[in-house]
Amino acid sequence: MTDISNLSELTKTTRPLPMAWYFDPRVFELEQRILFDQGPGYVGHELMVPNPGDYMTLEWMGHAKMLVRNDHGVELMSNVCRHRQGLLLEGRGHARHIVCPLHRWTYAIDGTLLGAPEFADKPCVSLPKTPLKRWNGLLFAGPRDVAEDLEDFSAAADYDFSGYVYDRTVIDECPFNWKAFLEIYLELYHVEPFHPGLRDFVDAANFRWEFGPRWSIQYMGVKNQLQKTGSPKYARYRDALLRYTGGEMPKYGTLWSIYYPNVMMEWYPHGLVVSTLIPRSPDHTTNVVEFYYPEDVAYFETELKEAHQAAYLESAAEDAQICTLLHRGRRALYERGEDDTGPYHSPLEDGMIHLHEFLRRELGPALGG
């Protein structure tokens, strides 16, 4: 059963979005200004740089910024030299100093310029920093008050990263609008017909929703004690998981959450995933997927870790197929000047309804409805 007791009346009566909201450049510009420029601005997790001197450049930002851990904690800092604007570092590693490969300008790990060869007087410049907010180790550079937004987020304890380590990031370039991705993420109607592996791992008939003004949670049960597997990758994942737990069932099949507009937090048995959507254009979205595991799983139970990622990426590829079909169909209607909005299924599409309510509330005044 689903709990929609805290779903507002407006949510229950909202309607699907018009086709122009997926393709009109003016809508895209408003989304950037209203939703993303004024959003929480997730940039990564403290576990990406666990030790003093660690750094990780942010690939989805073109490596223009990096997370570093120094005496001040974890900071978001420019990765562009203050001399001739070359990139300083690339990837993830450890450094005592940051040295520009072009002219050997050298910075401390906190961004202070230490030396500029051949300059009689050292220029008074340092690497710019962006202030960060923190929630459960997640780092945010945007203007929103993350603690206030997530104050009543009831699944906070399930996203406790204590004892976890960062494993890797996978970046997918998606040929569709970012809202199509979230619509599929936030509905359960497609799980049975489209996910042969996932549908025998999670129980799409045993779930509940929870909603807040800027977040939602999908709690999913375990399907039939994992007695059946619908794909080889999910069979491998199921077998590795049960070997690790000695046959004990997990408390959920999965737990999917979103912090609007674009940060998805996902709980899996002995694994956490943070996925962030970066809209590039009405037709192009970057999806940044981060994997985290308990230390023993990350270092000593690699079969479970690898099997989980293979199963996860299988379902992600299936979702991308759906989103591409949606995007192509909607574009065909948009180019013909037509609209079509089918009915919602409640409770299976309650998450999508909540998303549409959020978008209409945030963008409606600027778009006239």
UniProtKB/TrEMBL annotation:
<feature type="domain" description="Rieske">
    <location>
        <begin position="41"/>
        <end position="141"/>
    </location>
</feature>
<dbReference type="GO" id="GO:0051537">
    <property type="term" value="F:2 iron, 2 sulfur cluster binding"/>
</dbReference>
<dbReference type="GO" id="GO:0005506">
    <property type="term" value="F:iron ion binding"/>
</dbReference>
<dbReference type="InterPro" id="IPR015879">
    <property type="entry name" value="Ring_hydroxy_dOase_asu_C_dom"/>
</dbReference>
<keyword id="KW-0411">Iron-sulfur</keyword>
<dbReference type="InterPro" id="IPR036922">
    <property type="entry name" value="Rieske_2Fe-2S_sf"/>
</dbReference>
<keyword id="KW-0001">2Fe-2S</keyword>
<dbReference type="InterPro" id="IPR017941">
    <property type="entry name" value="Rieske_2Fe-2S"/>
</dbReference>
<dbReference type="GO" id="GO:0051213">
    <property type="term" value="F:dioxygenase activity"/>
</dbReference>
<keyword id="KW-0479">Metal-binding</keyword>
<dbReference type="InterPro" id="IPR001663">
    <property type="entry name" value="Rng_hydr_dOase-A"/>
</dbReference>
<dbReference type="Pfam" id="PF00848">
    <property type="entry name" value="Ring_hydroxyl_A"/>
</dbReference>
<keyword id="KW-0223">Dioxygenase</keyword>
<dbReference type="Pfam" id="PF00355">
    <property type="entry name" value="Rieske"/>
</dbReference>
<keyword id="KW-0408">Iron</keyword>
<protein>
    <submittedName>
        <fullName>Aromatic ring-hydroxylating dioxygenase subunit alpha</fullName>
    </submittedName>
</protein>
<keyword id="KW-0560">Oxidoreductase</keyword>
